[in-house]
Structures are given as structure tokens and as C-alpha cells.
Design brief:
This protein is of the alpha+beta class and 298 residues long. It contains 9 helices and 9 strands. The strands form 2 sheets. It has a 5-stranded mixed β-sheet with strand order 2-9-8-4-6. It has a 4-stranded antiparallel β-sheet with strand order 1-3-7-5, with no helix packed on it. Strand 8 and strand 9 form a beta hairpin. The radius of gyration is 33 Å and the shape is elongated.
């Protein structure tokens, strides 16, 4: 009789080592793929908004609207749209009644922003949430971020870093003022039309010194224009306050190294020049009629 030597026989003993390694690699790959797919599915938000965020400028005493939509990536059940308390005073949504939302459903939403005549100016941030109803309510991710900017009157958008690329900056409405300067004046002096007009005039003349001074003659001509605007500003609101505002607007203009360099170039071209003083005359020094601006904006 024969005898069986060694340990018990296994099927794996018949698989050559390279084949065993390949099978192990395939098993590991499948396990990892399942983990990745599970993590991806769990990380996916329950809803997707289009657009992904909203910015709405609105003038005091007026309203504006915009359309958005969200798509459900899972069955949501019965939900409602909810504006966070920080924006509830200003933002309303349609539909305003409960909805039953199933996976794959796209829902159209109308957002309306209404600002009061005495609303505080500036930017308010918040979200619109899709909230599950029932005995265990919850907010689905992800909410729609909303920024609203309450303005004293229509203004160009903030240029951001794009407004600092060149000495000229951005003047999207072509009024002669950089957009960031226009917004600074409007938000700082929303209810003072004469001050805004005088600062705007001075700002335009100061901007010209940065971009139009090419020789001594042009620098002197531009400087005389700033003197005229300076007389208008100080003649209307007082010498001391006018000087404070002039310095503040100058600081706003020289907010990059390139703009400061342009001003130094202008000053060098002007060096050694002399000029005489003049008495303030609204008709001669101001580009606007102060009496017509009382109670409104230019």
C-alpha cells in the first residue's frame, strides 16, 4: 500500500505562483473600487443647484428677481424651500408651498429680493435651503449660497482684483470714474449728493493726472484742473472737511504700486512750476449745479 506524505491537499496548491498573485491583485482592485464608489455616492450632495451661487444687487426701495433650479440626486420626499433668517427680511422664494421631490426631478425656483427705503447698505450673505418635512426635519445638502448687495442707486459691480491690473483700472459705465472709486463714494456718502458730485469731479481730475501726464505742459494743465476741482470741493463743504475728503479719495486712487509710481511721475513733471490762487466760484469751479442736487443724486 502506498502512503500520502505531507499536509492536506488544497486546490490553491495547483495554481502557479504568478497566477495566484494575479488573482489576489484582481480581488484587491475590486474591493478598492467598491470602497471608492461607496464613498463617492455618500459624498454626493442630495441636490445640485444651477447656478451654484447667486449674487443680486438691489437698490433701496426696489426689488429684483432671478431664476434658479435644483435637481434631486436622491428621493427627497416632502420638502419646502427655506430662506435663512439672515435674509428672510429681503428674500422670498417661489414655490412657497411644500413639494414632493423624487430622484432626478428638476425644480424651478424664483428668487425675489426686496429692499426697503431705509435698508442698511452693503452686502448680506445667506442661503436658501431645501428642508425635509416630517417628524424628523433636516436640511438637505447642499444649500444655495446667496449674496445680496443693497445699493443707494444703481452701481457697477465691484471690479475686484481685475480693477488693479492697470493704472487706468475699470470704468465699466464710462463715467470717468474707476468703478471702485464710484462705489466708494456712493456707499460712503449715499445721502449727500453735493459731496458725491464734488468728490466725483475731483476724482476724475485726479485720475487724469495718473494716465494723461506725458510732459511738463500736460502735467501743469492737469494740475490746474485738479486745483479747480479742489476749490469746488472745499468751497461747497468747507476747507477742513474738504481736505480730509480729498486725502481719502487720493488714498483710494493710489492703491497699487503702479498707481503710486504714476503719481510720482506726474509730480516730477510738475516740479518747479508756479501758479496763482483763485477765489471759489461755483459757476467757474464746479461741473454741476449744487442747487439742483439737493434731495437727489447726480
Amino acid at each position: 500500500m502506498g502512503c500520502i506524505l505531507g499536509a492536506a491537499w488544497h486546490h490553491d496548491d495547483m495554481i502557479p505562483p504568478p497566477a495566484k498573485s494575479l488573482r489576489l491583485a484582481v480581488i484587491i482592485f475590486l474591493v478598492l473600487a467598491a470602497v471608492v464608489l461607496t464613498a463617492t455616492a455618500s459624498a454626493r450632495p442630495a441636490i445640485s443647484w444651477e447656478p451654484e451661487s447667486v449674487f443680486l444687487p438691489v437698490v433701496r426701495g426696489e426689488s429684483t428677481s432671478i431664476s434658479a433650479s435644483f435637481t434631486a440626486n436622491t428621493n427627497l420626499g416632502q420638502v419646502e424651500l427655506r430662506v435663512v433668517p439672515e435674509l428672510a427680511e429681503f428674500v422670498s422664494v417661489i414655490p412657497s408651498s411644500p413639494l414632493t421631490i423624487n430622484r432626478g426631478t428638476t425644480t424651478q425656483v424664483e428668487l425675489t429680493v426686496q429692499a426697503g427705503t431705509d435698508s442698511i447698505l452693503g452686502v448680506l450673505e445667506g442661503t436658501v435651503q431645501v428642508r425635509k418635512l416630517g417628524h424628523k426635519p433636516k436640511n438637505y445638502s447642499r444649500p444655495l449660497p446667496i449674496n445680496i448687495e443693497i445699493q443707494p442707486f444703481p452701481l457697477p459691480p465691484a471690479p475686484g482684483e481685475a480693477g488693479k491690473v492697470t493704472v487706468e483700472g475699470v470704468d465699466s459705465d464710462g463715467d470717468g470714474l474707476r468703478d471702485d472709486i464710484q462705489r466708494f463714494i456712493a456707499f460712503t456718502y449715499p445721502d449727500e449728493p453735493v459731496t458725491r458730485a464734488a468728490l466725483s469731479q475731483y476724482g476724475e481730475s485726479f485720475q487724469d493726472t495718473l494716465v494723461q501726464a506725458v510732459d511738463r505742459q500736460s502735467a501743469f494743465s492737469l494740475f490746474m484742473a485738479t486745483l479747480r476741482s479742489d476749490r469746488c470741493l472745499k468751497g461747497l463743504i468747507g476747507v477742513e472737511e474738504g481736505e480730509t475728503l480729498r486725502k481719502s479719495i487720493k488714498a483710494q486712487y493710489l492703491n497699487t504700486a503702479e498707481r503710486s509710481d504714476a503719481f510720482f511721475t506726474f509730480a516730477e513733471l510738475l516740479g518747479g512750476s508756479s501758479w496763482g490762487g483763485a477765489a471759489f466760484s461755483p459757476e467757474d469751479d464746479c461741473d454741476f449745479n449744487p442747487g439742483q442736487l439737493i434731495g437727489g443724486h447726480e
